[in-house]
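Example 3.2
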Amino acid sequence: MNNALINTLIQAFNELDIECFDDNEVRKNHGQDQSPYVHISLPDLVVFPVDSKQVSDIVRIANRFELPVIPFGEGTSVEGHVLAIKGGITINMSKMNQIIEVCPSSFTATVQPGVTRNQLDKALEELGVCFPIGPGVNASIGGMCATGASGTNAVKYGTMKENVLALEVVTSEGLIAKTGSKAKKTSAGYDLTHLIVGSEGTLGIITEITIKLYPIPEIISAAICSFQNIQAAILSVIKIIQESVPIAKVELIDGHTMSLVNKYSNLSLSECPKLLMEFHGSQSYIEEQVDKVSTIVSEYGGSEFTWATDANERNKLWQARHNAYYAAIASKKNARSVSTDTCVPIDRLAECLLASIEEVNSSGIPYFLVGHVGDGNFHFGYLIDPENEEEKLIAEELNNNLVMRAIDFEGTCTGEHGVGMHKINFLNKELGDVSVDLMKKIKLALDPKNILNPGKVIHV
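Structure, written as tokens:
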């Protein structure tokens, strides 16, 4: 973008009272996320709207000049979703952080996209309701909606796709559209809400979100259990699900990752595969489920059971899982994680994991492994120095092989992180040319000038 155009845009945004920056430091801060891509391109301008009208004005101006616009939340995405790979205008949503309405009686809340998970949790704390969808970082609700995020509670509560009721969206022409309603179900027309959820800012920019809330469970009980091998842990999870035990969380950490966590957090947990589980409900209900699960995991050699209902004790049990990423990053100098996000049918999970572990061990690249095994979703983090080209190539080859393996097992390249830049070349393999062509037609119908987060999800 030339200086004359930048100055024209700055003047236009100033006249509309839209905060705007073109200095290198602000642009640099918006030229990175948690992906392995480091400053591959910077936006030309960064703007900070405070309401839907200002977002509409920004997009309308961008449309006139055919400039890319990239929505930016907390920058926690791991697939390059928010990188301005073609320059343009990054729209930072952090000042659109109002909780517009909470209705505990209808179990709904309406928020602006810049509201963060922690902010929402704190606001709901005293109201007897909660929003249980949570990735392991303090992401924005808008970003979670855009990527179709989920997290550790997905096995019970589902993902963002199941928990968004309605949206307000700014189109590529700068128009403001409404989708959905507060009603728990609808058959009114095309499902535009769930077309936008997971579209990563490529079909419209989300400016308001209505989400489902849930009662806070009377009691929450957590457990940790050790196994001799990963296959035994996975088989026990399959049996738990087959027995219709309504478990809220079931997470896997492998023995290698446990060794990293022990060193990082000064713990002394046995360094073998572990399941971390959580149960929500009444005292009697939880006791019944705990008995069932104890019996099942014992059949597969589960040992070292530890149970906790006290919040502090639960947090100690979950410390290993929550610290896995940080422990891994701390284990290698200048490390960044090339994160995988495959999801497979649960009956193929052990096979996929074991083949992938063998492959990464042979590569010499350090890694960590955690999994939302209740729904077949798991994450390898391949630890690389982003300045080391050889490590980057090996990590990408590992990721490519893992994705292809998952697709061959009738799984997906991404269970919750989204496509971004990193998974864009896998969609044809997973979905086929006809389906990807349909996506392109939808994209070009809603964004004919290709200004909405270009270069993400699909090639246009």
